[in-house]
Structures are given as C-alpha cells and as structure tokens.
Design goal:
Strand content: 35-45%
CATH architecture of the largest domain: Beta Barrel
Strand order of the largest sheet: 1-2-5-4-3-6
Largest sheet: 6 strands, antiparallel, barrel
Number of helices: 4
Structural class: mainly beta
Helix content: 10-25%
Radius of gyration: 19 Å
CATH class of the largest domain: Mainly Beta
Order of helices and strands: EEEEEHEEEEEEHEHH
Distance between the termini: 36 Å
C-alpha cells in the first residue's frame, strides 16, 4: 500500500525481456537504505517487487499483465520515473490510499500554466471516469492528486510547484502516456451495490442495500 506522495525520481538503467515480461533496473536519486529484496516499490504508480537491491539501484520483474495495463511497454532506458516505497503503519497518510494497481493508461491532452500552478488535462477511457469525481483523489504515475474537473473522457488536475519539481509531471509533455489508478473506494461501493457480485447491473436488478438497511445498521443518523 502507498500514499501517492512520491519520495523522489529514478532513472531506468536497464530493460531486458524475461519470458513474456521484462526485468526493469532503476537507479534512484535517493538512498534506498533499509529496503530489502521482496519489498514493494511503486514505480510510476505500479507496485513492483524488488528482486535485487544494491545501494541506490534495484531491479524488478514486470509481468505481462502489468505491461498490458501500464505504460511500461513504452518506457526506454534513460526514462525518468516516480518512486515511492511502501507505506509503514507508523507513517502519516499525507496523500490517499494507493494500491499500486494501475487501472488504465491515460494520455496528457493539454498543459497550461495558471499563476504558479500547472494544470494538466488527461484523456482516459470513458468507463474509467465513473470512478473519478470532482475534488476526489486520483493517482497519476503514482502521484496523489486532487481532481479539478472530470468530464466523460478526460479529467484535469492542478500540479503545485513543489509537486512539479519532485515528480515527472513537472516536465511531461502533451501526448505523454501516464499510469492512472482511481480511488478504490468507488470500486468497492459499485461492487457492493451489485446484487450478483459483478461490477455491472442490469436494469431489472435491484440492490439489497437501501436507505432502510443503512439506517438499521447505524450508517445513517436517525
């Protein structure tokens, strides 16, 4: 589990095929002191398991599923990436709960500067925006951000100078691909409201969860 508060940047120093996946090597800009083989590291929003660690360098295997769901298949040696080590139970939760399980790949539609803010608009598939709400949270390349606006196929976020200076969103151009993870709470609510356990519900199905049930179980004030 992660917070979306990026620790620092890293550089991809190696990419080689392994079966249907890839072995990824990353050199971090900061110390990985205390990190061990088997630890989870969030790389551009994707949770990867470190299989080798040496000083500031680590390696991780990227599975075929991760390659399919993320922008890793487009990354090259020399690409800069956002890094965050896993959340400890004693840490403050400064961002929001990020699983490191990427939902889709988005594309930067526009970048504009407003005063000291950088407003970034990102295109995503229409079936993803149902999990994104105005003023809600979203992880873009592993960065916890607040949604400024959400449309049918796009949303926008404001990147403050501090975030821009510490993450790849400070220099990614229009057209760049980014990993998107939506807030997991919406996904759980959608599944709970589905009577058959699927994430889709036909018009003639009704959920067993209603206002009366919520009131009886203490979720609503009398």
């Amino acid at each position: 589990m992660f917070t979306g508060i990026v620790e620092g940047l890293g550089t991809i120093t190696g990419l080689r095929p392994t079966f249907n996946g890839r072995r990824l090597a990353v050199a971090a800009d900061f110390s990985l002191s205390g990190a061990q083989v088997g630890d989870s590291i969030c790389v551009n929003g994707a949770c990867l398991t470190a299989v080798q660690i040496s000083a500031r360098r680590f390696e991780a295997d990227v599975s075929p599923e991760t390659l399919e769901k993320t922008a890793f298949k487009h990354e090259k040696i020399g690409s800069r990436v956002n890094l965050e080590r896993a959340l400890r139970l004693s840490d403050r939760l400064d961002g929001h709960l990020v699983a490191g399980h990427v939902d889709t790949v988005g594309r930067i539609l526009s970048v504009s500067d407003a005063d000291r803010w950088r407003v970034v608009s990102i295109e995503v598939p229409p079936d993803i925006t149902r999990y994104i709400i105005n003023k809600g949270s979203v992880a873009v390349d592993g960065i916890s951000l607040t949604v400024n606006h959400c449309g049918r196929q796009e949303f926008s976020v404001a990147v403050i100078p501090h975030t821009g200076s510490l993450t790849t969103l400070g220099f990614k151009p229009v057209g760049a691909l980014v990993n998107i993870e939506t807030d997991m709470i919406g996904k759980y609510v959608e599944r709970l409201l589905s009577t058959d356990g699927n994430t889709t519900q036909s018009s003639n199905q009704r959920s067993s969860i209603d206002m009366n049930l919520l009131a009886r179980t203490g979720f609503l004030n009398p």
